[in-house]
Amino acid sequence: MISPLAYVDPNARIGDNVEIMPFAYIEGDVAIGDNCVIMPHVSILNGTTIGNNNTIHQNTVICAKPQSFHYEEGEQPHVVIGDHNVIRENVLIAGSNKSVDATRIGSHNHLMNKVHICHDVQIGDYCVLGISASVAGACQIGDYAILSSSTIVQRKVRVGKFALLQSGTRVQKDVMPYAIFGGNPPAYRGVNTKVIEYFHPTVSDRVLRHLANAFRLITAGNFSLEDAVIKIHEQIEMSDEIKTLTDFINSASRGLIRYVEEEL
Predict the structure, then answer these.
(1) Closest CA to 140 of 129, 156, 126
(2) Model pTM?
(3) pLDDT tens digits for range 17-32
(4) CATH assignment, 7-138
(5) Which CATH number fits domain 197-250: 1.25.40.10, 3.30.70.360, 1.20.1180.10, 3.10.290.10?
């Protein structure tokens, strides 16, 4: 159902069973999949593609012009959003800097009030971004990551899968998967055991212990990251999780958060 008080460009492609509430604004180069709910005062701008079963709350703006000095007028920003996402009030999702690229949000994500997603960010599946979390341009957020309230992720940082950033944390370097980081400067605070077990209940205690031992070598050992990876391969049984962790380390180009608080 489309409210007569909403503006929907006749060229917009609207799926089946979509509810568009009063005062929503939808431009022409927009595609919205089936069973979506668009609440009042949402603005969905040219270049947006939205999948099925998404709920978008009041005052959200999708595919805003990038707030980037690298954006050139005439480029058409794009945003691509998957399925089963909840986007709460006052969220801003900027489009890509270039017409050939897109800011991408996967499926089953929850973006809370006042989240700001900058241009060309890539967000995986099953992520949670807390109230007022801010993600700068060209960042990559892995599957199942949690960015708690008021976290700030600076430009081009990668956040690994199952990583958890605690409230107010600001990161300038890559965030390793499977771990909890918090404070300023951000520090390692343990394996993200509860979230891993919730989404992957078959994961063994043995693998979780191996992850803890790997992080101990990375954060507490008095040697380089390269040597830490060598020691992980020598001392710890290989698993999908350990391989994901070491591959992430080996592909890091902006440095990694390795600091660990003394009491830990």
Answers:
(1) 156
(2) 0.95
(3) 999 999 999 999 999 9
(4) 2.160.10.10
(5) 1.20.1180.10
